[in-house]
Write a structure and sequence with these properties.
Blueprint: H1 11-28, E1 38-39, E2 46-47, H2 49-65, E3 70-73, E4 77-79, E5 87-95, H3 97-102, E6 108-116, E7 122-131, E8 136-141, E9 145-150, E10 155-158, E11 169-171, H4 178-191, E12 197-199, H5 204-212, E13 218-222, H6 226-238, E14 243-244, E15 252-256
Parallel strand pairs: 3-5, 11-12, 11-13
Antiparallel strand pairs: 1-2, 3-4, 5-6, 6-7, 7-8, 8-9, 9-10, 13-15, 14-15
């Protein structure tokens, strides 16, 4: 058993974990009854009653402790309190809804918090991802490392990121919009020269966690929303993996052993570098409006 670490006492990390766990408990309560399934945008871009109920549980957990923090969630949009504290939470109550609906275990509740910096930017401070069907929790705090908690064995492991090899595997995802999906497929064919295989997990949050623990060498996806990557990017970053966050929406999210110069935009020439090329930093970006087109997770 790992002795108590400074991260175990950090209030933002603790609240991130509590909030993600609250969402995960909702997901774990799935029954054989109706899911309340509906399309948000394109076919297959589903939302369920569990998405909404999990976000309510997460929001209530945060607001009870920090009522003056802003909240940005996938299902219920943005909330600004009367006296904002300068801290903002990014919430994905069910990352991997398509997996959840189909009975595939790769889905999770994801919660992260950032604060406004002196220059008007944002810096990510803490994040947690809880995957109830996998029985695992990932969490990180800025400067405090990234950790994996096996909820079955109660073991805690510090994550160290991927190691280079000649058998690297890349994880990615695809959007619901046909044109975006075609672009993503073309980019994947260009990127594959550096990898021996790919994985398509179906949850950007868990993709990033798998890079953090070294199970995957790299992850890259175009068009993910902030709530998809907010917690996972910090976890990968604190594990020592190179991380690039999107600049605006849509953009590239990447982590691990990947050449960011190869991540171009749909209207850019093959030799044009994306804005994310120099974005291995701590900044947060504004997500697209809730309900907008996102990745196929």
């Amino acid at each position: 058993m790992v002795p108590k670490q400074p991260i175990d006492h950090d209030p933002l990390v603790l609240l991130s974990r509590q909030a993600a766990a609250a969402g995960a408990r909702v997901l774990a309560g799935r029954t054989t009854g109706p899911l309340g399934l509906a399309n948000k945008t394109e076919a297959g871009d589903w939302v369920t009653d569990y998405d909404r109920n999990a976000e309510e549980a997460i929001r209530n957990t945060i607001i009870t402790t920090r009522p003056n923090d802003e909240l940005t969630g996938e299902e219920f949009g943005h909330h600004t309190p009367g006296k904002p504290s300068g801290y903002r939470w990014s919430i994905d109550p069910l990352d991997g809804t398509a997996n959840f609906v189909r009975g595939i275990h790769y889905y999770a509740s994801s919660v992260a918090v950032c604060r406004t910096t002196a220059d008007g930017g944002e810096q990510w401070l803490a994040g947690a991802i809880s995957a109830p069907a996998l029985g695992v929790e990932y969490y990180a705090g800025r400067g405090l490392g990234a950790w994996k908690h096996d909820l079955k064995s109660h073991t805690v492991t510090r994550l160290q990121g991927p190691m280079d090899s000649d058998a690297k595997v890349l994880s990615t995802g695809f959007g619901y919009d046909v044109a975006r999906r075609q672009f993503q497929a073309r980019m994947l064919s260009e990127l594959l020269v550096d990898y021996v295989n790919i994985r398509r997990i179906g949850s950007a949050a868990l993709d990033l966690c798998l890079v953090a623990e070294g199970a995957l060498e790299a992850y890259a996806e175009f068009g993910t929303q902030e709530w998809d990557w907010a917690a996972g990017a910090l976890i990968a970053e604190e594990a020592g993996a190179p991380v690039g966050r999107p600049v605006g929406y849509p953009g590239w999210q990447y982590a691990g052993l990947i050449d960011p110069a190869k991540l171009r935009f749909p209207d850019s020439a093959p030799d044009t570098q994306p804005e994310t090329d120099a974005q291995e930093d701590n900044s947060a970006t504004s997500p697209a409006p809730a309900g907008g087109s996102t990745s196929g997770t």
